[in-house]
């Protein structure tokens, strides 16, 4: 399989200022090394404050690392030695969707206007071409072309998540990153969203990196699992290998907690 993302030595350091009667809080992440291939699904799991979300934000460009390199395809997407490289690179190559999609949607503008912004800023398409592409993408994620005229308050939670997904895939990225994208959805809508993402992934050849506490979904859709603790990758491997033969104590606790919630016959 063709490699689409190569991350090497990615590091982040943070130290908060000392407050009255409190020690300064120090958190460091990395160095992180990881590779992602076309069409691959990688799940990042771990306990709270393990660094999962921070890593996702660094990969998506929302947080700037202190050190390291991110290569997208054969292009240097970010480098600590050349911070301008990211500005000159194809910034639409990695896109992110969040757990609470409504918080990233402006309630004062229509769905069409929300989706038009990334195209207007990153492409040379005409107004008519952008409108046609937006309508086609809405259909692709299971919405109607008419939803282009809707406002946020007119959409259900599931529909809002589909709009967020449409916005992420509009520029045809190589990598889609999602931070707990299913947690806020009820089980039925969650299942529909998972199946939709898998369908789009197959159609577009997307690499999908997602963070989740739901190990049932992780086991169902992930090709590989990365386990984080204390800002470090402590274990990684094929999904079934991680679930059947976890090596690190933290991984064992996570898997045991998952196994305790499901009927034992499904583990055989």
From TrEMBL:
PROSITE patterns reported for this sequence = ABC_TRANSPORTER_2
Q: Which ranges carry the ABC transporter domain?
A: 5-255
A molecular function annotated in GO for this UniProt entry is: ATP hydrolysis activity
Q: Pfam families annotated for this entry? A: ABC_tran
Membrane topology for this entry?
A: Peripheral membrane protein
This protein's GO CC annotations: plasma membrane
Q: Where in the cell is it found?
A: Cell inner membrane
**Which keywords has UniProt assigned to this entry?**
ATP-binding, Cell inner membrane, Cell membrane, Membrane, Nucleotide-binding, Transport
Is Cell membrane one of the keywords UniProt gives this record? yes
Q: Does the keyword Membrane apply?
A: yes
CDD domains, from UniProt? Answer: ABC_NikE_OppD_transporters (cd03257)
- SUPFAM superfamilies to which the protein is assigned, alphabetical: P-loop containing nucleoside triphosphate hydrolases
GO biological process, any: transmembrane transport
Q: Which SMART domains match?
A: AAA
Sorted alphabetically, which PANTHER family does this protein's record hold?
PUTRESCINE EXPORT SYSTEM ATP-BINDING PROTEIN SAPF, TRANSPORT ATP-BINDING PROTEIN
Q: What family is it from?
A: Belongs to the ABC transporter superfamily.
**Protein's recorded name:** Cationic peptide transport system ATP-binding protein
What is the species listed in this Swiss-Prot or TrEMBL entry? Marisediminitalea aggregata
The organism's lineage is: Bacteria, Pseudomonadati, Pseudomonadota, Gammaproteobacteria, Alteromonadales
């Amino acid at each position: 399989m063709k490699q689409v993302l190569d991350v090497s030595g990615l590091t982040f350091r943070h130290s908060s200022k000392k407050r009255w009667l409190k020690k300064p809080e120090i958190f460091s992440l990395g160095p992180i090394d990881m590779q992602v291939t076309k069409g691959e699904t990688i799940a990042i799991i771990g306990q709270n404050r393990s660094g999962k979300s921070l890593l996702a934000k660094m990969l998506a460009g929302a947080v700037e690392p202190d050190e390291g390199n991110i290569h997208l395809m054969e292009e240097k997407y970010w480098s600590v030695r050349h911070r301008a490289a990211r500005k000159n690179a194809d910034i639409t190559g990695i896109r992110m969707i969040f757990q609470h999609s409504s918080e990233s949607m402006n309630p004062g503008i229509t769905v069409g206007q929300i989706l038009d912004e990334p195209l207007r800023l990153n492409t040379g398409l005409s107004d008519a071409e952008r409108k046609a592409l937006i309508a086609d993408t809405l259909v692709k994620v299971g919405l109607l072309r008419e939803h282009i005229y809707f406002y946020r308050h007119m959409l259900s939670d599931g529909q809002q998540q589909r709009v967020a997904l449409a916005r992420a895939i509009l520029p045809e990225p190589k990598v889609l990153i999602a931070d707990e994208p299913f947690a806020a959805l009820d089980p039925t809508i969650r299942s529909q969203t998972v199946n939709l993402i898998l369908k789009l992934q197959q159609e577009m050849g997307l690499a999908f990196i997602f963070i989740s506490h739901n190990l049932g979904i992780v086991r169902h859709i992930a090709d590989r699992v990365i386990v984080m603790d204390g800002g470090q990758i402590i274990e990684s491997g094929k999904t079934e290998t991680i679930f059947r033969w976890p090596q690190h104590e933290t991984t064992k606790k996570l898997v045991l907690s998952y196994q305790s919630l499901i009927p034992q016959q499904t583990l055989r």
